[in-house]
Amino acid sequence: MGFENDFEALQTAVFETEQRIKKLEKHKESVTKELEESKSDALIETLRRLERNLDDLHKKLEFLISERDSKNTKK
Q1: Which of 11, 50, 67, 69 gives the lowest tally of CB atoms within 10 Å of its CB?
Q2: For the whole prediction, is pTM greater than 0.90?
Q3: CB-CB neighbours of 13 under 10 Å
């Protein structure tokens, strides 16, 4: 990642990742409601992918926050 030494870029990346997580969580809610009404294989696959993507984004966010915090304490 090209922002290891740029605190503002880390802040921006944290914000963008948080926004993406919120968007995917809303989509997951919607798919989960649809799945309750219809056990579609396509919906099950969509939900599986959403969960995997959310897990990946949470890991990314954790990394970004730790990088940002480590840069912030060095200032």
Answers
A1: 69
A2: no
A3: 20
Q: What is the pLDDT of residues 1-15, one digit of tens each?
A: 555 568 888 999 999
* The token pair that represents 22 in the structure block: 């919120």
The answer to whether the beta carbons of residues 38 and 54 sit under 8 Å apart is no
Q: pLDDT tens digits, residue range 32-56?
A: 999 888 888 999 999 999 999 999 9
What contacts 24+ positions apart, CB below 8 Å, involve 22-31?
24/50, 24/53, 24/54, 24/57, 25/54, 28/54
CA distance 10 to 6: 6
